[in-house]
Amino acid sequence: MMNNQELIQSLRRISYIALFFIGAIVVISAVEQKQVSDVKAVRIAIEPLADGYFLIDSADIHTTIERSFGFNLEGQQLAILDVERVERVLEADPFILDADVYVTAGNVIKIEVLQREPVLRIIDRNGLNYYLDEQGNRLPLSRHFSARVLVATGNIPPHVPDFLEREQYLLKDLFELARLVREDPLWKVMVEEIHLQNGSFVLIPKLGNQRIVFGPFKDVDDKFRRLRLFYEHAVPYAGWREYKTVNLSYRGQVVCEKW
User: Fold this and answer.
1) How many structural domains does the chain have?
2) Pairing label, strands 150-154, 118-123
3) Mean pLDDT, the chain, as a whole number?
4) How many helices and strands (H and E) does the chain possess?
5) What is the pLDDT of residue 31?
6) Is the pLDDT at 205 greater than 90, yes or no?
7) Residue 124 — pLDDT band, cuts 50, 70, 90?
8) Co-location of 158 and 127 in the same domain
9) Dihedral over Cα of 132, 156, 173, 233: its sign
10) Structural domain that includes position 128
């Protein structure tokens, strides 16, 4: 026969077990209730580009989802919502680098989008006009905003997905040259366009009509070194507008042509 202490311990165990099952039932009921619940709203947050602008907007996100799923997410049952598929659909958009989609406790779908950052605008020999991002991915022009980036023109070969992996490809040379211009504080503010003709590059400054003949993509560091010395030591005496062309294609020299 149980004494009072044993009876109390037994009742406690029974209470714990009962509470466990009640809690499990509540959780299961809540999950089932959530699954049959409808999406109350869709909230979209797009991270702006470095200069604060946007290549896409919330309406573009809604349109992309509706085209893929055939319906708007708002008002749909959570049970039929495939969050991972929504992310894949959005990340297939050329403007989107990453998409994070999740459902809040209030049955609100949150969509957080990171845009691709254009770094170079290409206007090729066939008249095609597009951007390249930092990874060399091709982006179309945006109807919302024209990114203020370095422009490349001339006899530019076609964009192919693996162009950065090819041993010899002029688009790869152009992309690397643009990167060097972009990463140097002086060249970044000075150069607005790179023109490619017959395998030779020409840098076009933002001010004036001067042309810097860079030549083929070789001895790059030395060419930029010579150009920097020229602007530091020669230009202050002769003047910025004195020279029509500054030619770096001759080894160890800076050959200038006056107007």
Assistant:
1) 2
2) parallel
3) 88
4) 7, 12
5) 44
6) yes
7) confident
8) yes
9) negative
10) 118-258
